[in-house]
Amino acid sequence: MEYFEYFFTFLVNISYLYWDYINAGALKEKSAPVPRKKFEKEHLNDLWVADCMHGPYIKCGSKKRKTFLIAAIDDFTRMLTARGWFFNENSICLEIVIKEAIRRFGLPHALYCDNGSLFSTSHLQLTCARLGIALIHSKPYDSPSRGKIERFFRTVRQKFLSSLDLTEIHDIKQLNERFEHWLEKEYHKHFHHGIHTTPMDRFIHALKNTTIKRLTEHELDLAFQITIYRKVKNDSTVSIKNTLYECSPEFIGKKIQIRYPSDKPEDMTIYEDDMPVEKLKTINIHENASVPAWSIRFSKEEDNDD
Q: Could you tell me which residues come within 8 angstroms of residue 78 by beta carbon, excluding any fewer than 6 positions away?
């Protein structure tokens, strides 16, 4: 009887596993692949396709460090609008290259990227909303939908990295300089079979028929601002990322709002009622021993000038 109960339990468990297998679709016939249609936007800056590529290790000092290439390509011209090699793969690095790309090429209408953590931060969504950029994410594991940037990464591996002597590269600045030289002399001036011309020639021709929307540096800084909150200590200081900043004594004991551009973490400003009030200054204990060194104040006249 006991043997029968064990056997019956075994059959029940097998049946559950079988139905889980069926419901998961593992035994169903594979569906036909969804056909893809080749597409191309009609104008410059209609669409930038962004992604991140894992690069080689370079010897920096006594250590070897992994590199990452964060880039975006213009769908119409195939110009590489955003680019930068980094030792980290994070949102700050992404925003640095996107901000520089907007300086060079103007505002894109849309930014197309995968749904990984690098491209899914709330701050990137907020920044794109401030700039009027449509942030579009591809479906998970759908790299073919970002085929143009993936094809560019293949070109980087085959043409740029294969010809690079990594023993001559000792820091990330050198790697970026070599990459910029290769872009200017090779990639942007090389015939592209997908557009039947060079990216540079198509870009120059597209400028005649495209209105480029540009922003001032101040407008860019406002769009990429990060907001944090801190309580001011009794010695008129706040600690931000292990760095002490000082402000006027009137803020002692208060919780203040601090904003700074993502690529300029040293540019800390106190805001009240959505208006800049005072710039924070890194503390200098030796200077404070002789003369009180308060932060830079914003006058009403300066605010009105903006």
A: 148, 152, 192, 194, 195, 199, 202
Determine, yes or no, domain membership for 10.
no
Give the C-alpha separation, 269 to 134, whole Å.
Answer: 28
How far apart CA 225 and CA 109 sit, in angstroms, is 20
Residue 38 domain flag = no
Lowest mean pLDDT among 2-16, 32-46, 269-283, 287-301: 2-16
Whether 266 shows a pLDDT value over 90: the answer reads no
- Whether 278 and 259 have beta carbons less than 8 Å apart is answered as no
Q: What is the mean pLDDT of residues 209-213?
A: 92
Instruction: Find how far residue 188's CA is from the centre of its chain.
Output: 22
Cα 34 versus chain centre, distance:
30
- Find out whether 246 and 236 touch, Cβ atoms under 8 Å: yes
Q: What is the mean pLDDT of residues 246-254?
A: 93
* Domain membership of residue 111 as a residue range: 48-217
Same domain, 213 and 186: yes
pTM to 2 decimal places = 0.78
Distances in Å between the Cα of 201 and the Cα atoms of 77, 100, 148, 155, 224 are: 8, 22, 18, 19, 31
113 assigned to some structural domain: yes
Residue type at 222 in one-letter notation: L
Residue 41 covered by a domain: no
Of 198, 217, 236, the residue at which a domain comes to its end is: 217
Handedness of CA 151, 188, 208, 83 (dihedral sign): positive
Compute the distance between CA of residue 264 and CA of residue 65 in angstroms, rounded to an integer.
Answer: 24
Structural domains in the chain (count): 2
Digit-coded pLDDT (tens) for 49-94: 999 999 999 998 889 999 999 999 999 999 999 999 999 999 999 9
Asked if 140 and 115 touch (Cβ cutoff 8 Å), the reply is yes
